[in-house]
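Ticket #4471: structure export looks truncated?
Reporter: QA, pipeline team
Priority: medium

Steps to reproduce: submit the single chain below to the structure queue and open the exported record.
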Amino acid sequence: MSNEQNKKAPEKKQGLVGGCCWIVVRLITWTLLGGCMALVISVLLLLLLGHQTAIEYVNSLLQGQLRYLGIYMGHSFLVHNPVNFVVTFSRQIYQWLFIDTGLINFLNQNTDQLHHLQLSSDKSINNNVSQFAGSAYPILSDYGRILITTVELMSVKLAVVVLAIPCFLLLAIAGFVDGLVQRDLRKFGGGRESALIYHRAKAVIIPVFFVGCLLYLIVPFDIAPEFIFLPCALIVGYSIAVMTSMFKKYV
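Actual output as written to the record:
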């Protein structure tokens, strides 16, 4: 077998459009994963804390996020009024998922039927059916309420993630400029580039952003968004600075 046949075919590099599409796909995937994990956590809270306590707790998380928005996010580079943007975004998600799909009507109709069946005194109704209706009504109602509240909480947090993107962009630009300065100093000072450090720093940037977003979406307690996004944005900016400073000396 010749040497040419033994050579591996060069890997095809991903273009700018393909890279952007891949980032969008990953963002959607991580968002859906965060939503599923948040629903699982809400169900666990429902089982551990009790139905009414869990619903009140999730609702307090929702109100807490809206309160943090009013305190810390009075202005934004993307929208004029962040609070109105988040509320409008949350209502639109609610409209798409629960009203347009008919899920709210289905849930209300079935819970009303079960409630009437539970309260019915008609002797012709089988006792087993009455017992099932009596146990199914509160369970279905509580699970439906915590599902709706959790989706509202997730939509608010997702809007906050969108509003936090300029913070990552600003620190990324600052890190890039600082990295260029360090690269010029290294180039004129006779320093050497390090491919290992370059690739290690490059590999950190995207995962840190997605992990920060996922952590904020699923965290089961009341926390200001700045305590999650600001450290992640600093790590992203520092990683970009290190990556840029270690880029090869001559292009």
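Status: closed, not a bug. The export was complete when the record was re-opened. Leaving a note from the reviewer for reference: Residues 4 and 111 are 71 Å apart (CA to CA).
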